[in-house]
Amino acid sequence: MDADAGFDASLRADDVAFGARDAALLRAIDATGSLNAASDRLGRSYSRAHERLDDLENAFGPLVERTRGGPGGGGTTLTDDGRALVARFERLRAGYAAIAETTVAVLDGTVTDRTGELGVVDTEAGAIRALVPPDTDRVEVSVRGDAVTLHDPDASPAADATSARNRFEGVVTAVERGDAVVRVAVDIGAGTPIDALLTATSVERLDVEEGASIVASFKATATRATPREA
Amino acid sequence: MDADAGFDASLRADDVAFGARDAALLRAIDATGSLNAASDRLGRSYSRAHERLDDLENAFGPLVERTRGGPGGGGTTLTDDGRALVARFERLRAGYAAIAETTVAVLDGTVTDRTGELGVVDTEAGAIRALVPPDTDRVEVSVRGDAVTLHDPDASPAADATSARNRFEGVVTAVERGDAVVRVAVDIGAGTPIDALLTATSVERLDVEEGASIVASFKATATRATPREA
DNA sequence: GAGCGTTATATCTATGACGAAACAACGGTC
DNA sequence: GACCGTTGTTTCGTCATAGATATAACGCTC
Hey, is the C-beta of B167 within 8 angstroms of any chain A C-beta? Predict the structure, then answer.
């Protein structure tokens, strides 16, 4: 059963959710200088766009400046806040897209110690520090490829010298080259390997190849556990 | 203008998007053993729930097993695939939640070199390697707090010994303690500091305090740039 | 064979979101 | 004062989604 991860991103204030359609509207206003032309460009009704803009401004503050009459008949321009909102929305989407696209290794485990939202999870690979759910000890730990850093085993930093708390010795089981990003699978003693996403430069400089010994590290604060079924 | 980041997560197959309401339905079925009782529990209509379940199974394959008649009148149970879909959805949500919650530093810059989707961005702090958008050199680089690792300046790994390509020397400007997660702000020579989210253990072992020198590193493959307005 | 409580199916209703169209008002230009 | 093309406002229609209700059918138990 194959399924793609998706999302609808939003920024929320006062029960109003600023989403992709809203960002598209503001971008079209920015490009055309007119709410009328922007609606046309997007194939949307002028009256709805106008109403929506009012709702957004009630929640988020002034996003546009509008003038009536004049040589072109009037116009609409984005405020600095309007541009900032669109920029922030784009960054948020980029972040979610990273989550949707990145590879994830899932390790079953049991929480054995907690300090606030952090915990120690006992897994096949050993103890993993992660952000853990409050109500259960039965969890699965997600390790994202873009959160795993690889180190030369002979030169990996001492525990007192780095803030990355999870460190495992392992063996490279696969090296899969993309355009500029390389996916490296590392067996750290769990049932399935974890992935690390590296640049080609890193692969060369670390001399990563199948069968090589390597140290994989990832931050506790970037590792999340979710409840696991009985 | 204050706004909270939000999202609607989904897993998609055959133009059907499995979302939070669907996950809630499957969880309620799991808890009650009955589609009828699950709908009641969720305050939803039985016929809609039934129809939706059919749509989901057409797209994702068998998610439940249903029996009619018998001692209790019949019932509905989740299949292994049904449970796996819910578990995968929960992991996806946890990932998006991490994005929504984490602090982000934004650095303006210009792309000066590209290799596929990776690029070098010239910023106030120096060159940053990141995943860059294809159509523009004017970008802003987002550096997420949960992606930044701190190192002892005297003991940070050599460039040939780690896959984290971005490394900056900086000074700690703030240490802000949460329950178990500590937010450390580091001035790396950009207009605004970047944040690193650390465990309390890391803060102690690294002896992180305001004014201290520190090395901050983050992976190129975990760093994204988005287009920046003129 | 009735009873039970479920699954399965059919039909109806309400609501929110959205597109569409029409018209009033604006204000600089000619 | 007319013209232009915009903003601003009003009204209408359609569609998708969802809730609600009713009924048929199932199959084990008594």
Answer: no
Instruction: Choose among B213, B200, B219, B195: nearest CA to B152.
Output: B213
The CA distance from B92 to A216, in Å, is 23
DSSP B11: E
Query: Residue B224 and residue A98: Cβ atoms within 8 Å?
Result: yes
The structure tokens listed for B174 are 């703030």
Protein residue nearest nucleotide C22, by CA to C1': A47
Residues 6+ apart with CB under 8 A from B43: none
**Rg of chain B, C-alpha, whole Å:** 24
Chain B hits for A197, Cβ within 8 Å: 219, 221-222
The two tokens of residue B147 are 């992606």
Contact A103, A144 (CB under 8 A): yes
The domains found in chain A, sorted by start residue, are 11-101 (1.10.10.10), 104-227 (2.40.50.100)
User: Taking every pair of C-alpha atoms in chain B, what is the biggest distance, in angstroms?
Assistant: 72
Res. A1: pLDDT tops 70: no
A&B contacts, CB < 8 Å: 262
Q: Which residues does A70 contact at the CB level (< 8 Å), separation at least 6?
A: none
pLDDT in tens, A55-111: 999 999 999 999 999 888 999 999 999 999 999 999 999 999 999 998 899 999 999
How many CB atoms neighbour CB B51 within 10 A?
A: 11
Contact B95, B87 (CB under 8 A): no
Q: What is the pLDDT of residues B31-84, one digit of tens each?
A: 999 999 999 999 999 999 999 999 999 999 999 999 999 888 999 999 999 999
Q: Work out the minimum CA distance from A47 to partner chain B, whole angstroms.
A: 26
